[in-house]
Amino acid sequence: MTLQSERHITVSPERREMTDGQCYLCGETYTKRGMNRHLRSCLTTGKEGTNAVVLRITGTHRGDYWIHTLIDRETTLATLDSFLRDFWVECCHHLSTFEISGTDYNTDNPGAFGSRPQRGRSMDVSLGTVQDRHTIEEFSYVYDWGSSTHLTLSVVETGSWKLSSISSESKEDPPIGYDGLLLLTRNEQPDRECSTCGGQAEQICQECLMRRGPDAFYCEACADEHDCEHPRFLLVMNSPRSGICGYPG
Ligand SMILES: [Zn+2]
Ligand SMILES: [Zn+2]
Ligand SMILES: [Zn+2]
Ligand SMILES: [Zn+2]
């Protein structure tokens, strides 16, 4: 198996902060940085609830992909893992790990594909328990120990909210429905230019992604004409795993 690296499509720090996204509570658009501030004032309904945490989750090396979630303290890391897989990263059931203050929390899935460090704890633990165990402001997530996708999760706000009374106008299809977890925001699809004609890219050649990095994006017409050693195309998706392994979106 050839390993691919998301580092091949890193973006400049300026561009990382530039991607706008939508707040699903009010429908307004904000920058990545502005959204943290915005959510503190937008999340005013449903205050009398249980303890919950607003987490920003962003591609560690592909920071123009980002979301915010509101997560109940009772919600387990396993649920957060399932959500991240379904919503953003799943391709072929690779192993995944949360790394929190030096402790690994791994998937309990003997059928999962790949190898992983043989130590660590189970993901079947609530976020609240983890917060009591470690002081966490930021932690990380790895999906797939081969061609890895790394995510950085940071605590934006803690408070008490009744999740069921907050309506998130997420336009995701199918809707993302997880108990104790609400999707609050998402980045807009970042612009990717066709490396041949400069038009809007729709396809990524995995072979070229591996060898040449950013010059792997093509529009449909140029993809048809594309002629490298082993052309293998994946659609450009709004995900930090776009173009990696067999990520179908
Ligand atoms: Zn809002
Ligand atoms: Zn895969
Ligand atoms: Zn083109
Ligand atoms: Zn190619």
Task: Characterize the structure shown.
- The chain is α+β, with helices and mostly antiparallel strands.
- It has helices spanning 13-18, 32-42, 77-89, 127-133, 206-212, 220-225; strands at 20-23, 29-31, 50-59, 66-72, 96-100, 103-106, 121-122, 138-143, 149-161, 181-187, 203-205, 217-218, 233-235.
- The protein has a ten-stranded mixed β-sheet with strand order 2-1-10-4-3-9-8-5-6-7, sandwiched between helices.
- The longest helix is centred in the middle third of the chain and has 13 residues, at 77-89.
- The site of one zinc ion has 5 residues, from loops.
Summary keywords:
249 residues, alpha+beta, 10-stranded mixed β-sheet, 3-stranded antiparallel β-sheet, 6 helices, binds zinc ion
The SSE order reads: HEEHEEHEEEHEEEEHEHE
Q: Give the low-pLDDT segments.
A: none
The biggest beta sheet is recorded as:
10 strands, mixed
Are any ligands bound, and if so which?
Answer: zinc ion
Helix percent band:
10-25%
- Classification by helices and strands: alpha+beta
Distance between the termini: 21 Å
Strand order of the largest sheet: 2-1-10-4-3-9-8-5-6-7
Number of DSSP-assigned strands: 13
